[in-house]
Amino acid sequence: MISKRRERKDEHIENYLKTSGHNDPLFDDIYLDHNSLSDINFDEIDTSIEFLGRKISMPLMVNAMTGGGELSADINEDLSSICQSLNIPMAVGSQTIGLEDEEASESFTLIKEKDLVRIGNLGAERSLEDFKNAAGMIDAHAIQIHLNVAQELFMPEGDKDFRGYYDNIKNLLSQLDVPIIVKETGNGLSKEVSKKLIGAGVKYLDVSGSGGTNFIEIEDMRDFVSDYKEFYNWGVPTAKAIIDARSLSKDVFIIGSGGIKTAVDMAKAIIIGADMTALSGEALRYLLLGSYEACLDYLKDMNKRLKIVMALLGVKNIAELKKVDYKLTGRLKDLVD
Ligand SMILES: Cc1cc2nc3c(=O)[nH]c(=O)nc-3n(C[C@H](O)[C@H](O)[C@H](O)COP(=O)(O)O)c2cc1C
User: Fold this and answer.
1) Could you tell me the pTM of the whole model?
2) How far is residue 332 from each of residues 13, 259, 324, measured CA to CA in Å?
3) Ligand 1 centroid vs 62 CA: distance in angstroms?
4) In terms of residue numbers, what domain contains 247?
5) What is the total count of domains within the chain?
6) Ligand 1, atom 21: nearest CA belongs to which residue?
7) 282-299: buried (b, 16+ CB within 10 Å) or exposed (e) per residue?
8) Which residue of 27, 205, 213 sits with most ligand 1 atoms within 8 Å of its CB, as the best mutation to test the pocket?
9) Domain with 38 in it: what CATH number?
10) 95 CB less than 6 Å from ligand 1?
């Protein structure tokens, strides 16, 4: 079972690199006016925000991906070093394997040594005890509860009984003293689901919408017999999920993820309601198909390019970025109530 989990993680990583990437987070349907009278000194633009009690350099984190096998340990080592040097947070991948296998837990515990905001990750079916252990394993500043119904359904050996998640989340909220982030895994939190979660007392939502990493396709590739192409477009596009979640509450902390690849995506996600953004797949692509330096440069450049977007809009900090006016066009306009 444990070696199966390790193998599965490696297959996810390999298959991710082969996915078609044709889904759309709908950021192109957000129009922003250019500001020809930008009253800004580029060098004074401040992209920092406060997150989980720490000032971070930009509203971006590397989201949950790996842990368990040797490849995962190398990836976690590289990503956490990169995040530390850029002062941005990092979430580790599902820690289930680390709870079951002492050796595998080392691929997670290595991030404890790093001076950065560390975020744990487990599925919504796991017990309070498991969550406490997972948080302890990496000395976590927060823990993500992931919702991955779509992935499990298309995973040949996946769970098919999804009862009890909501009650378990409520229980964890009342019992766990580590901040909880409830996140999707690339199919998006709908307005109805966000409403339920906010109603239950969830303070941090990661919408992880469709338009980026596509686990239905990743799982489908692992099974040569099946062909589930008709589901590849399933999910709530990231831009819609952000707008919907923000329409429900001005206080909930929203992480916009799912298909964030550029600084323009990042800025748009914030303008429509996210407090910060997260990316997974694109960082992995730079790391595995490029190198440590390529991934570091890509993320460093995101910060520089975010400043360029902010200068073009005439805003000097993230609080001002959040107030920028925008217009919705195309499909996104049709989808938002
Ligand atoms: C190889 C890979 C493994 C992932 N494993 C996890 C996981 O263990 N737990 C989780 O919550 N999300 C996992 N995700 C989902 C991401 O955290 C994120 O929600 C999703 O990929 C959408 O973001 P993206 O389009 O920037 O990749 C994984 C993503 C990738 C690419």
Assistant:
1) 0.97
2) 30, 15, 18
3) 10
4) 2-335
5) 1
6) 213
7) bbbbbbbeeeeeebbebb
8) 213
9) 3.20.20.70
10) no
